[in-house]
Write a structure and sequence with these properties.
343 residues; alpha+beta; 7-stranded antiparallel sheet; 3-stranded mixed sheet
Length: 343
């Protein structure tokens, strides 16, 4: 009797396991969360989209604004220009993923901004101005998205906002005697800090010989110059590699995020590089724009143009190294402080 029941039990167990596996396999995966609000604008040759992750936050929260733009081949996208504030929000963070070239030859760029409110209320995330223009010159066009709205609520309990209520004018306190000892202590501290800064700069100049970014970049440019006659069909790769070298040297000290920034963003950031002459900045701007033309417009540069580009790249690298030497790195000098400081 037991021998007859055992095969039935095994068969029922196998059938139950198969049913459970089938149910798990058919269970849909959770979908990615949709943005709270999004706006889009497009025409025949370009498309721009902006969206935010929330539509209501507290005053101690933040909003992530993401925008992306895609243009046809032969066009250069123009990103929105935003400073430290966007409407009633403060821009406290930026992220620039790498720009990509789609399989259809379209240029796709994407950026993220982290926005922080100040007081409670309903605020607009202003519309963004996008644009594009032909790489070879010509009239461009502009696209503007509609604004989005965010409700900001206070983290205070009801009634706590009355703490700052005016209580009236108080009587003036009698003046305190002037503290000369504090003045002498402040002067001594300032002198000590000055001597410490000089020591840090001197130590940094002694230790900067360990840097290998710029020497390696100079060596690579010289090597590419010698390989030009043999690289007839690969000159675009030479331009792309030199562009990567410029971004790598800039990210060493001058602009930590330069590896993931567009050419226009690096050009804007270079305005704050202390110790770099205006003619070197113009030479850097020209190189980056020409490299974008080669990368996105499919231009095949000649040997003479490539050789001239390498010569200008050497001059720009020399200027960037000089500006990089003026950056004070507190961590390498043995203390703790900001990663870099510039006047």
């Amino acid at each position: 009797m037991n021998r007859l029941r055992r095969p039935r039990v095994v068969a029922l167990g196998a059938l139950s396991a198969a049913v459970m596996l089938s149910a798990c396999a058919k269970r849909p995966r959770p979908a990615a969360p949709a943005p709270a609000q999004q706006v889009e604008v497009s025409d025949a040759r370009a498309r721009a989209r902006a969206f935010i992750d929330v539509d209501q936050i507290a005053t101690d929260g933040e909003v992530v604004l993401t925008w992306e733009m895609e243009v046809d081949a032969g066009l250069a996208p123009m990103a929105p220009e935003v400073g430290e504030r966007l409407g009633e929000f403060t821009v406290i963070g930026r992220e620039a993923p790498r720009d990509v070239l789609t399989a259809e030859g379209r240029t796709h760029i994407e950026r993220r901004w982290v926005l922080e409110p100040f007081l409670d209320g309903t605020y607009d995330v202003p519309g963004l101005d996008f644009g594009y223009a032909p790489i070879e010159g010509g009239e461009g066009r502009r696209l503007r998205t509609e604004p989005m709205h965010v409700r900001v609520t206070s983290v205070l309990e009801p009634g706590e906002s009355e703490i700052a209520e005016t209580r009236g004018v108080l009587e003036a306190l009698p003046p305190e005697p002037f503290k000369w000892r504090l003045v002498w202590a402040a002067a001594g501290g300032a002198a000590l800090c000055g001597a410490l800064v000089v020591a840090i700069v001197w130590t940094h100049r002694r230790m900067k010989r360990r840097d290998v970014v710029f020497p390696a970049a100079f060596a690579r440019v010289d090597a590419l110059r010698g390989q030009l006659p043999e690289r007839t069909g690969a000159r675009r790769e030479v331009w792309s590699e030199v562009g990567a070298l410029l971004a790598s040297c800039a990210s060493a000290k001058l602009e930590p995020g330069a590896r993931h920034m567009s050419a226009q963003e690096i050009i804007s950031a270079s305005l704050g590089w202390y110790g770099m002459m205006d003619q070197d900045r113009e030479r850097l701007s020209g190189l980056l724009r020409e490299m974008d033309d080669v990368r996105y417009a499919g231009i095949e540069p000649g040997e003479e143009a490539t050789r001239d580009m390498l010569a200008r790249a050497g001059l720009v690298l020399e200027a960037m190294r000089g500006a990089s030497d003026l950056v004070v790195d507190f961590d390498r000098a043995g203390g703790r402080g900001p990663e870099r400081t510039q006047a």
